[in-house]
Write a structure and sequence with these properties.
This protein is of the alpha+beta class. It contains 3 helices and 2 strands, in the order αββαα.
């Protein structure tokens, strides 16, 4: 495991240290999911949007997603 300390600037930007970017294979156009998983524990996860979209298409093939979205919106109002 690689650990380093960094700071957030006033605009909320955080520099991911070079050693961690290199080990995680992060590049300037990498997409990251940011999640608070518990009080004060924030996780960054590298995600591949194309792979995620392909997986969703495969998993949801034949499912009427629009009907599900509509039902959720109705239940929320």
């Amino acid at each position: 495991m690689v650990e380093e300390v960094t700071k957030m600037d006033g605009a909320g930007r955080v520099v991911i240290p070079k050693s961690i970017r290199k080990k995680a294979g992060l590049k300037g156009d990498s997409t990251l999911l940011v999640a608070e998983v518990s009080d004060g524990l924030i996780v960054l996860k590298k995600i591949d949007i194309e792979s995620l979209a392909k997986a969703l298409r495969r998993e949801l093939k034949g499912v009427d997603v629009e009907a599900i979205a509509k039902r959720i919106e109705e239940e929320a109002s």
